[in-house]
Amino acid sequence: MTDLPVRMLALDMDGTLLRSDETISPRNQAAVAACLERDIAVVLATGRFYPGVTPYLNCWPGSPIWVAACNGALLYAPGEDEPFSTRVVDPSLARAVVAWAGAQGVYVKVYVDDLVLVNRMTEETRAFMRRYGPRVRVERDLAAALQRGAAKILLFADVNEIPALEREVCARWGAGLEVTGSEPYVLELTAPGATKGDALRTLAERLGIDRRQVAAIGNERNDLSMILWAGRGATVQNANAAVREVAPRVVGHHDADGVAEFIESFLAPPGAV
Length: 273
Prior knowledge:
Blueprint: E1 8-11, H1 13-17, H2 26-37, E2 41-45, H3 54-57, E3 65-69, E4 74-76, E5 85-86, H4 91-103, E6 107-112, E7 115-118, H5 123-132, E8 136-138, H6 142-145, E9 152-156, H7 162-173, E10 178-180, E11 186-190, H8 196-207, E12 214-218, H9 224-229, E13 232-236, H10 241-246, E14 250-251, H11 258-267
Parallel strand pairs: 1-2, 1-12, 2-3, 7-8, 12-13, 13-14
Antiparallel strand pairs: 3-4, 4-5, 6-7, 6-9, 9-11, 10-11
Helix pairs in contact: 2-11
Pfam family, one: Hydrolase_3
Protein name: Cof subfamily protein (Haloacid dehalogenase superfamily)
Organism: Symbiobacterium terraclitae
C-alpha cells in the first residue's frame, strides 16, 4: 500500500463496476463522480468493445473518462470515438487462429474496430445482435473475412474443455498472443502487450502519473495485469478464486457496492477508514 494520493482509477466493468443486471449502483456512481470531482483520471478498463462502453459514460455526463477497450488493445481519450493507441493481432495470425478454431468446432467471436464478427449463429450471437444490431455480423468463412487486425479474438467452449484449448493455443501461438479470460468458458486472445496493465502504463506515462498513484479493481484473469501493476490493486468478493488469492485486497461483492468501498477507502481522510 502506498501513502501517495491516487491520481488515476481503473475500473473493470462486468462483474466489478456493474451489478449482475449490468447497471451501476447509485453508490458506485457517486463514488466515481467523487473521483472525477477531485481530478482523478478515471479509466473504464474492459474486455468490451467501445460501443459496449459508451452508454455507461452517460452516468457521468460531460466528464473526462478514458476507455481501455478490448482488454487494453484500444485506448480512447475522453470524448473521442477513435482510439489514439491500438495493438491488434496481425491479420495473418488472426486468420490462422480463427481457421484452426473453426476446424475444432469452436464458436469464435472477433472484435475488429467497432464491429464484432462471429463464425456461426448461436443464442449468444442472437443476444449480442439484439443489443448491437448491425455491429454484429455472421461470417461463415470468418478467417477469409479478416482483412484487418483483430483487437480481440474470443474462443468459446465447454468449461471442462477450456484448459486443453488454452494449452493448445499457447503451444501454437503463445509467443504471438496474450492469452487470458473473463469467463470460465471463454479464452480471450489479444496482441502482445495488449493487456489492461499495459494500457494503464501507457495512460500513466501520457498523463505523468506515478504507478504508485494508480488504483485498479477487477474480478477476472484479464484484470490481473492491472491489479498487480497498480499501486493500489483490489478485487471484489465475487472474483475468480485465483484472482482473490493474489490480489492485494478484497472488497465487497459487485452487487454490494464493492467498487464504492474501494474508492471511499482512498478518498477518506487519514484515520477515517
